[in-house]
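Researcher: I need the complex structure. Ligand is MRU. Inputs:
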Amino acid sequence: MVKTIEWTDEGVVMIDQTRLPREVVFVTCRDYREVAEAIRGMVIRGAPAIGVAAAMGVALAVKQAPGRTAADLQPALEQAAQCMAATRPTAVNLFWAIARMKRRFAESQAAGADAGQIREAMVAEARQVLCEDIAGNQAMGRHGAPLVPSEKSIMTHCNAGALATGGYGTALGVVRAVAETRRQPPHVFSCETRPFLQGARLTVWELQQDGIPVTLITDNMAGHVLKSGRVGCIIVGADRIARNGDVANKIGTYGLAVLAKEHGVPFYVAVPISTLDLSLSSGDQIPIEQRSPREVTHVFGVPVAPEGIDVENPAFDVTPHRYVAAIITERGVARAPYEQTLPSLAQGCTPVGLSTEPASGGPGIM
Ligand code: MRU
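Model: Output:
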């Protein structure tokens, strides 16, 4: 499996996702500003991968800051945290990772660590974020695999695979877990995902590398394919899930979920606990990133619309929780009522907003 992101002595190394599948090129970010630029420019994308990158960016800043005490390093920590937070607004994993790195810094400082020890602690923490992400995805795969019916295809949207995470993937992690445990690998329908084409460029490439059969369709073919009865379930990832189970994910996800309901196909969302934002009561409060009109008017630099046309380009939409059959996490599978099941699953972790949540029972958790 390809390495999405890695900490090295030279800097943070990432596969350049803007150039896949035509070229497999790795870039090295040598300071935190380059990491932020890579996130903003989609060299690295996908909520959990953005979180790992942000953690490594913050670690890089602290590692490179001069000084002998914690106080000397503090400005670099704050500057990097601010810079990372301003890259992309929707994926809550980004903010979760920054908060985790700040917490680690504060703990080291409180324990009386000197600058050298704090630098080491920050690097170790960032590497730990990466390791935990991969292990979490494998656990998610184990929890999700039993939900996938045999003999039918899985449909997915965007890329929630190894490339969108530290490795293995969330939605595609479930696909991989099915492939590893059943005689026949599952067949996947990948929606191309206009306008940035993560499905066509990344999902299809990544599954092809693993020998998992995949069929590429344009987004507007999904209804036709679902109607044919060949799809057993839809599995997608998410950038942020509110306390009531509303799911922000790549634009087009909402339409797919509605189509799934119409055709009696279960719609699953696979996420790490760090994608839960329990501080938000509903998906209406999730900030939606607006991206450049050029992504819509141009395809690979070639204009496909008349010049000067008015364009909207929201990168994400919000799927109301009533369309979500289950949320698959590394800790188990949550079903409605999500207000109760999500905080229960998250207990013991520290997703955004959890600290304000009372503990509750476990109805709906498998
Ligand atoms: O704009 P992107 O490519 O970062 O959007 C990615 C998605 O929407 C993914 O589905 C989501 O981040 C989950 S990735 C495991």
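Model: Summary of the prediction. Residues 45-48, 91, 158, 160, 164-165, 170, 198, 236-239, 249-250, 315 surround MRU (CB under 6 Å).
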